[in-house]
Design a protein that fits this description.
mainly alpha; 15 helices; globular; about 300 residues; about 65% helix
């Protein structure tokens, strides 16, 4: 059973509940999608019919309810923010370095390369690269949404780039990471699904047509941010509940733990804590569940104290 949000110390229990739904949504999407990561939709149908249970397995051979680098990197980033009170590049680099030294269950090549370079040189930003348009900076960004809540949009975008550029310094990566944070923040403030699409997603797609979800269904999405977000956007557009959104996106296969994680961090606050399926919450690794809740409350308290 989840601890009640009212005990979090946040003066706004509705905001606290939505924020918890965002972090738990990330972890649930990660755990659900990890089972079918790198599978094609046809392979998923052959093995599961429709994959809709948190059951572990997959290429990583996870125990049921365990998560991957998407969630654990987010927790590392959140710890760095809590230590410094803001999104500080050196603190983020140190947190990512410690995370990698702890031998995570999985790590992307671009993330690994960026962390090794930070470890070797202390460099706080990778050089711009057309090859760094992956989804690794986006999958972990949720703590930034909490830390910059209520700040001007330019400040939000800057904070996103501070953590992102340690491993991913690319305009498409930046754009995708920033829109996810802004969508999460809108959902935290109670914006409806229709308004989120009209006022946030639609203008973003007009400015960045490569992310346009119109047309062919994005199946077997790769780790590139444009493919990841097209799949996430389609799932958000084509469904009207948290559960349906995550089942839709992970059954596309491909980089399913990350599409699930990003869809979960948006759909969680959009639909609310009560919309998270209880069997999924019960199946989620208990230590991960508690870490997500605890960090959410601490980040919100820190952020709201600064606003106040």
């Amino acid at each position: 059973m989840l601890p009640p949000s009212a005990s979090s110390g946040c003066p706004d229990p509705i905001l606290s509940a939505r924020a918890e739904a965002a972090y738990l949504g990330l972890a649930l999407g990660d755990a659900l999608g990890a089972t079918v990561e790198f599978m094609t939709p046809r392979e998923i149908v052959a093995q599961y019919g429709s994959h809709r249970h948190i059951c572990g397995g997959g290429w990583l051979k996870l125990k049921p309810g365990r998560v991957t680098d998407d969630t654990t990197m987010a927790l590392a980033l959140g710890d760095a923010i809590l230590r410094t009170g803001h999104v500080d590049a050196r603190a983020c680099g140190e947190a990512f370095d410690a995370w990698m030294r702890a031998k995570p269950v999985d790590i992307g090549n671009t993330v690994r390369r960026g962390i090794i370079e930070f470890r070797r040189t202390g460099r706080l930003a990778s050089p711009p690269s057309e090859y760094d348009a992956g989804n690794g900076a986006c999958m972990r960004v949720l703590p930034v949404a909490f830390a910059t809540l209520g700040q001007p949009e330019d400040a939000v975008r800057t904070a996103c780039r501070v953590q992102a550029h340690l491993t991913h310094n690319n305009p498409l990566s930046d754009a995708g990471t920033e829109i996810v944070v802004l969508m999460v923040q809108d959902a935290l403030q109670g914006v409806s699904r229709e308004a989120l699409i009209k006022d946030r997603m639609t203008p973003f797609i007009a400015a960045h047509p490569v992310f346009d979800p119109a047309g062919k269904r994005e199946e077997n999405p790769s780790g590139f941010i444009k493919d990841t977000l097209r799949a996430v956007f389609q799932a958000l557009l084509d469904t009207d509940s948290f559960e349906a959104c995550l089942i839709d996106v992970v059954n596309r296969g491909g980089d399913a733990d990350t599409t699930g994680a990003i869809a979960g961090m948006i759909a969680g606050p959009l639909y609310g804590l009560d919309a998270l399926p209880l069997p999924w919450l019960a199946a989620l690794d208990g230590a991960t569940r508690e870490a997500c809740i605890t960090q959410t409350r601490a980040l919100l308290a820190q952020s709201l104290a600064e606003i106040g």
